Amino acid sequence: xxxxxxxxxxxxxxxxxxxxxxxxxxxxxxxxxxxxxxxxxxxxxxxxxxxxxxxxxxxxxxxxxxxxxxxxxxxxxxxxxxxxxxxxxxxxxxxxxxxxxxxxxxxxxxxxxxxxxxxxxxxxxxxxxxxxxxxxxxxxxxxxxxxxxxxxxxxxxxxxxxxxxxxxxxxxxxxxxxxxxxxxxxxxxxxxxxxxxxxxxxxxxxxxxxxxxxxxxxxxxxxxxxxxxxxxxxxxxxxxxxxxxxxxxxxxxxxxxxxxxxxxxxxxxxxxxxxxxxxxxxxxxxxxxxxxxxxxxxxxxxxxxxxxxxxxxxxxxxxxxxxxxxxxxxxxxxxxxxxxxxxxxxxxxxxxxxxxxxxxxxxxxxxxxxxxxxxxxxxxxxxxxxxxxxxxxxxxxxxxxxxxxxxxxxxxxxxxxxxxxxxxxxxxxxxxxxxxxxxxxxxxxxxxxxxxxxxxxxxxxxxxxxx
Length: 467
Ligand code: FAD
Ligand code: NAD
Prior knowledge:
Strand 4 and strand 5 form a beta hairpin. This protein has three domains: about 220 residues, 3-Layer(bba) Sandwich (FAD/NAD(P)-binding domain); about 110 residues, FAD/NAD(P)-binding domain; about 100 residues, Enolase-like, domain 1. It contains 14 helices and 22 strands. Strands 1, 2, 3, 4, 5, 6 and 17 form a seven-stranded mixed sheet that branches. The termini are far apart. The relative contact order is 0.12. The mean pLDDT is about 100. Nicotinamide-adenine-dinucleotide binds next to helix 7 and strand 18.
């Protein structure tokens, strides 16, 4: 078969690129190694983790806050088998949705490992044996994603020393869990089990949690998670982690260089992800990788070989589903000769702990490094009537604005529904709003979004009303 556009990988980057390509009139194929479409995000990432986060949050509230709301329950218990079953159903339904979209858009789906023979010819080899098929394509979009990093001191055995993939399908609620890496995955999946009763210890190399986000967020999140029972060890370097009998023994160096030992039923290794390019046959066509193993691309997301593009986790930038989607649309439109644009500064980052954490634009530390003069205004949720009504008073919203022009440069929040609220900041910043612009817009009362307006008021002239 001959195609105009072929996409390798069916994650949020790949399947979105394929849909946009067909919308633009291209005869399109998508190749996926596994039987299930949707990539990391749908199968072992965003969707299953959020399903478990929601379930565990219900349990946590039933146990911790219902009584205060005047709701009393007897014999509350966790049925982990049912919780996992629901998660699996959510994943299957979402994957089914992608199958539907492929059919609706008349995209040919090939199952097998896609590998370049030359720049226009791709072999598709089924993982579990069977005949290799060959297709040709005018343009190719590589969207093969990423996989977990496993650092050498950890003896990854998939049973007790695990990554997110296994943590999403444990068959028991562990009594104890060590989490190596206090980033997004560690804190989200650590929260799932902590809410179900597991004693979670986070071992982080840096001096704070989520160190790439605004400094205030890591500090505030640390306080809340500790209050929820999570233990955090900072500036600790893991030197060994291996299963011994029915537990994992972790050895780490504390900030004083002294070795400490932590024992846990499970050890989740969540120290980042790395681009996945194995089996693609890139060496056959000379596609270049950078020093971190990512496919090198130019501003058009085209690789070192013309007509071959790469998007999502396999290229530089944030490893986020919505970033991959934007790039999928961008490349399809580039191929069609359009002039698309992505504002990478305005790709929001979210951590689905509770309270949720979200940020967009520049962090305070970045602005300081750049020597840019800025003003900062913040508003705590404990001063919000809506937050008191829902018992979600932890956290705050911080707005950073240019000292002279008042243009919003960054918005960082930790609090209820921050994941959804950050969209207001993205819209405002895309239109280059000033803090005063937001502070003069009506926000419905009582809503959590009033805290954004109040933080903007605090940033303009320290004139927040409710603090
Ligand atoms: P992927 O989704 O990784 O898809 C790549 C696909 O390519 C895979 O299906 C793979 O099998 C296939 N493939 C690889 N090589 C070949 C080949 N040679 N031939 C054929 N197919 C191939 N991001 C968010 O924005 N929000 C979240 O809430 C979030 N939660 C996450 C939770 C977890 C536990 C994890 C692990 C990740 C999470 N992420 C989240 C990150 C998100 O999943 C990724 O950023 C996103 O999936 C990247 O999309 P992609 O299309 O680049 O690649
Ligand atoms: P991460 O980069 O978010 O966090 C890794 C953490 O591990 C960092 O805090 C880092 O300092 C720490 N670390 C690194 N090496 C260490 C070591 N040797 N010892 C102790 N700590 C160490 O990575 P992740 O949590 O594995 O997530 C991977 C990717 O998946 C991220 O890029 C993230 O964007 C994406 N993701 C996103 C979401 C979301 O959007 N909600 C959820 C999950 C994953």
